[in-house]
Amino acid sequence: FDDSELFVATVQDSVLHYLADRLGLPRESVVFAEIRDGLTERRIADDTLDHIEELLEKLSFLRFAPGEKESSSKELLDAARELIKEVDRAFK
Q1: How much is the pTM?
Q2: What confidence score (pLDDT) does residue 1 get?
């Protein structure tokens, strides 16, 4: 792991763990399909679900595709923060 791979892995795990916690799902083996189902049941907007899925796919790609680090750390962190805010607003 270099620093960027560790950063991407940390952001990805943080987003997944946050969503799992919000939905009462186990953190260890949560997959996006379970998260999507849980958020859909809570009537989270489709565009928010799509944004979450896009971010998680991008993080996975960056994490496992060597040399493909086109996104800055700040952009990834900002995107994760914004999605968390969207989900928080929907849970209120």
Answers
A1: 0.83
A2: 47
Amino acid at 48: T
Q: What is the 3 state secondary structure string of 26-69?
A: CCCCCCHHHHHHHHHHCCCCHHHHHHHHHHHHHHHHHHHCCCCC
4/6 Cα distance (integer angstroms): 5
CA distance 22 to 20: 5
> Which tokens sit at 47?
């565009």
Contact (CB, 8 A) for 63 and 13: no
Q: Output the six-digit token pair for 16.
A: 């997944």
54-72 per-position pLDDT tens digit: 999 999 888 887 666 566 7
Pair of tokens at residue 38:
């849980």
Q: Are 6 and 74 in contact (CB under 8 A)?
A: no
